[in-house]
Amino acid sequence: MSSWGENSVDLGAPGEDILSTFPTYQTQVMSENGLSTYYEVIGGTSMATPFVAGACALAWSMNPQLSHLQVKQIILDTVDKLDSLENDPEYCQL
Fold first, then answer.
1. At what angle do helices 68-78 and 45-62 cross, to 10 degrees?
2. 2 within a domain of the structure (yes/no)
3. Where are the beta strands (DSSP E) in 1-94?
4. Could you tell me the pTM of the whole model?
């Protein structure tokens, strides 16, 4: 798990075992890491980021006049709170 705040995760998104598109040609890095073309299952914050960006885009699509801080507040006010993303001593400074 990464990107924990002081006490919790404000907006969680899947970041493991995500099916993602890859180039249609084999690059050297792909060959070195055993990755195929077209689709690959990968993970990490790079896979979670598009989910968060999508949530922001959906909020902005409802009202393009909102500031980034207003969009952030709307998202934080409307997430489903999960106990599993709060006060984890392994990741948070309690």
1. 110
2. no
3. 18-21, 39-42
4. 0.62
For residues 38 and 54, membership in a common domain is answered with no
Q: Please tell me the distance from the alpha carbon of residue 47 to that of residue 70, in angstroms, as a whole number.
A: 25
Could you read off the pLDDT of 5-57 as tens digits, one per residue? 676 677 778 878 888 887 778 889 888 988 888 888 888 778 888 888 999 99
Phi, psi of 45 (to 5 degrees): -60, -25
- Within a domain: 32: yes
Number of domains in the chain: 2
The residues, ordered by sequence, that sit 6+ positions from 68 with a Cβ below 8 Å of its Cβ are none
Domain hosting residue 37, numbered range: 14-43
